[in-house]
Design goal:
The complex is a heterodimer of chains A (436) and B (299).
Chain A lengths: L7 H19 L6 E7 L3 H17 L3 E7 L9 H7 L6 E4 L5 H6 L7 H7 L8 H5 L2 E2 L2 E2 L2 E14 H6 L11 H11 L1 E2 L5 E3 L14 H5 L17 H17 L1 H10 L17 E4 L1 H10 L5 E4 L11 E10 L7 H11 L2 H11 L2 E2 L2 H6 L9 H9 L1 E4 L6 H16 L5 H20 L1
Parallel strand pairs in A: 1-2, 1-3, 11-13
Antiparallel strand pairs in A: 3-11, 4-5, 6-9, 6-10, 6-11, 6-12, 7-8
Helix pairs in contact in A: 10-11, 17-18
Chain B lengths: L4 H35 L2 E2 L7 E2 L3 H8 L2 H31 L7 H9 L6 H11 L6 H8 L14 H10 L3 H12 L3 H9 L4 H29 L3 H6 L11 H11 L3 H26 L12
Antiparallel strand pairs in B: 1-2
Helix pairs in contact in B: 1-13, 3-7, 3-8, 3-10, 3-12, 4-8, 8-10, 10-13, 12-13
The chains are: A alpha+beta (436), B mainly alpha (299).
């Protein structure tokens, strides 16, 4: 019999014990495909996805989805970039901006999903067109839409309308009407600062740089997204319109107003307290109003549009499922995505977070349609012209240039044509580099 | 002179002892440093392999990128104004708080506390203070009969606002100057008293020269830090309004992580490195006449 002496024998025994226990603990994972799943937010939205992942794990014994909260899915802080570049990407990523799909795909960050779609029964025609459009880059499919939301609807404060002598039940439909309404509502205080704002076109969700150009009937790219068309006439008109607001009401006053206003999660937000007549905001704003200032007397309608522009524009954004480049279990990843997007399940998810499923049939199943407030958004999407952000790989740069151009135009430092010519030149140079 | 066997063994042992740090330094500092130098000459989006473009990034930065020069201007503005301001304020404060009066300890603590507030929290706090319509600062100014300013929403006042905000954190430098002040031998002051020197003469001829190594250190560290100013601009203004707060590092970050232009950003990083290097060397050279080290020759 071996005597257990101090030193080597004891150490060896401990080592073996540790090895065996680790192996035993690791047993459940052997034979399973582990999918690393990154999701971008915490709170209710995040918890819901984690709960769904756990449910998936129960019904799929040979796959284990491990959900991990990574702020913004690591898109803006370099984490996702680093994970892909380092060859250790997550297997499934849920991100909140479908438009970024082109950026990732063009640079080789995503796995082409086209070959897997038929097998798992995911079909373009089942999805909202404007959402699916963001998934397609150079003829291939790089992502799957999850849940979408209207980003731009017109919210109006009926009490503010009434005090300004406007009919609280008739929101403006055309841009001309919106201008008239804004003129009647806007009031200044004794210091020359804006006390009640009528409309600030680029505030909140109106700030999406591709929004007003599209409403005015313009396009920021040609249809193949190979040419930048920021200086085409309709886009120039849109920016001139914004510039006119800066001139009329004072760019500095607007900046001061926007710099001092409270966010939607404060009961003092200007829309709740009668300091804002009209606001371009997303469907989640209704949730905020009902939560923080339920007594606000407000209405929701389609965004006003110019006569030769886009009628009843409905600007949407969508969450997107990605399978990063280098993910090792693409088939299983798509299986998980397909399961999460199954129409009854997706409808429930969308209802819980107050948004719309991007699967058209799932949208039809949603309970939210019957809600007096949220039902309006379904209406806007189903009866309007649905538009979304371009998925061009140069979009982040393009958008920033447009913001700078807009600031210069609003402050009257340059004309819209000049600023947009400059944007076109710069962005085209960048785009050409990417397309080479 | 040849190395003896013992010395050789000692060297080997020494290297072995520092090998963890050495490995870490080589892998995580030196290698990425030289990688970024390489990437500065490439077109690199991180997700795909880089491809060589030679001096194109440099050419574009220097000759075809307006925002680059705007960011250089903004950064220089910040460096040139904030550094002297913080130095003078820090030293003055330290001198004032060095007097042996009851309660000085409490005052020193109060001045130091802002430096331990996390940057994100203080940025949000200051955003409030700078609120154009009902912020503390404008309210205070109105009381004194001064007009309200746009602060962070005004292209003219955005940088001064950020510099003003930095003054809040002066306690960190102050503590270091205080330590330096404690180091000045009392007999120098006693000798000056005997010769009939007044407070101002003592400060100018004793305190400042004896404090000069510390001031020099703070100047160099401050210079290096000021050129890399980023966090507050990133959180509070995102480079606006009208690019007034687009600092060098912020523009670099945007290029690297928002526009996927890592190669371009790497070139920027090395330009920043050269700028800081040259500035630091200039300060070093010009310090020879102004900095006095105790216990050595007064060079």
């Amino acid at each position: 019999m071996v005597r257990l002496t101090k030193g080597k024998n004891k150490a060896a025994l401990v080592f073996i014990l540790v090895l065996v226990s680790l192996t035993v603990l690791a047993m459940p994972v052997f034979g399973k495909t582990v999918l690393k799943f990154w999701y971008p937010w915490g709170g209710g939205d995040g918890d819901l996805r984690v709960a769904l992942a756990n449910e998936f794990n129960k019904t799929h014994p040979d796959i284990e989805v491990q959900a991990l909260l990574v702020q913004g899915s690591g898109f803006y802080n370099g984490k996702l970039m680093a994970a892909i570049a380092g060859g250790q990407p997550p297997d499934v990523v849920l991100f909140w901006n479908g438009g970024a799909t082109g950026s990732m795909a063009a640079r080789g960050g995503l796995t082409d999903l086209s070959p897997y779609l038929e097998v798992t029964g995911i079909d373009a025609s089942a999805y909202q067109e404007a959402a699916w459009k963001q998934m397609v880059y150079q003829g291939k499919v790089w992502g799957i839409p999850e849940i979408s939301a209207i980003y731009c609807a017109l919210y109006y404060n009926k009490d503010v309308f009434a005090s300004a002598g406007l009919d609280p039940e008739t929101p403006p439909v055309t841009i001309k009407e919106a201008d008239l309404y804004a003129k009647k509502i806007t009031r200044y205080d004794d210091n020359g600062q804006i006390e009640v704002a009528g409309l600030i076109p680029w505030m909140n969700q109106g700030g999406h740089t591709d929004f007003w150009p599209q409403v005015f009937g313009g396009r920021l790219f040609n249809s193949e997204q190979t040419k930048v068309t920021a200086n085409e006439p309709e886009v120039v008109v849109a920016y001139e319109w914004m510039g006119s607001y800066g001139k009329e009401y004072g760019a500095k006053q607007f900046a001061s107003y926007m710099g001092s206003m409270q966010g939607a999660d404060s009961p003092q937000a200007p829309f709740y307290t009668g300091h804002l007549g009209m606001d371009i905001n997303g469907s989640w704003f209704a949730t905020s109003i009902l939560k923080y200032a339920p007594d606000t007397n407000f209405g929701i309608s389609s965004v006003p549009y110019p006569e030769n522009g886009l009628t009843n524009p409905a600007y949407i954004g969508t969450n997107v499922w990605w399978v990063p480049k280098g993910a090792k279990h693409v088939k299983e990843s798509i299986e998980f995505i397909g399961w999460m997007n199954e129409k009854t399940r997706l409808a429930k998810t969308a209802d819980k977070v107050g948004n719309m499923a991007s699967v058209v049939e799932a949208q039809q199943l949603q309970q939210l349609r019957n809600d007096p407030v949220f039902g309006i958004f379904f209406d806007l999407v189903e009866n309007g012209n649905v538009i979304s952000e371009p998925n061009s790989p140069v979009w982040a740069y393009y958008s920033d240039q447009l913001v700078k151009a807009r600031d210069n135009i609003v402050f009257g430092r340059t004309t819209a044509q000049e600023a947009l010519d400059e944007v076109t030149r710069k962005v085209q140079a960048e785009l050409d580099k990417l397309l080479k | 002179m040849t190395i003896t066997k013992t010395e050789k063994t000692n060297i080997k042992k020494g290297l072995l002892f520092i090998s963890p740090w050495l490995l870490g330094f080589l892998m995580f500092r030196l290698y990425p440093l030289f990688s970024s130098l390489y990437f500065g000459f490439t077109d690199y989006n991180v997700l795909s392999p880089p491809h060589w473009t030679g001096l194109e990034n440099l050419r574009q930065l220097l000759f075809d990128d307006e925002l680059f020069w705007v960011s250089v201007q903004n950064t220089l503005y910040y460096v040139v104004i904030s550094l002297p301001l913080y130095l003078v304020t820090g030293v003055s404060l330290a001198i004032l708080l060095n007097m042996r009066i009851k309660g000085m300890f409490v005052l020193r603590t109060i001045f130091y506390i802002p430096t331990i507030v996390p940057i994100v929290a203080s940025s949000i706090l200051w955003k409030w203070i700078f609120n154009p319509q009902n912020g503390l600062l404008n309210t205070l100014m109105n009381y004194m009969g001064l007009p309200s300013l746009g602060w962070l929403s005004d292209p003219v006042w955005a940088k001064p606002a950020l510099i003003l905000m930095g003054l809040w954190g002066i306690g960190g430098g102050m503590v270091i100057y205080l330590a330096g002040l404690q180091d000045i031998p009392q007999d120098l002051y006693d000798a000056a008293d005997i010769d009939g020197a007044n407070w101002w003469q003592k400060t100018l001829k004793i305190t400042l020269p004896m404090l000069s190594p510390v001031i020099f250190f703070q100047l160099i560290m401050g210079l290096i830090g000021a050129f890399q100013y980023f966090t507050q601009a990133f959180i509070m203004t995102e480079g606006g309004p009208l690019n007034a707060t687009t600092f060098f590092s912020l523009y670099l970050y945007q290029n690297a992580f928002i526009y996927f232009r890592m190669g371009y950003a790497s070139a920027q990083a090395w330009i920043l490195f050269l700028i800081v290097l040259v500035s630091t060397l200039i300060v070093f050279k010009s310090s020879a006449r102004l900095v006095f080290y105790q216990g050595g020759d007064f060079r």
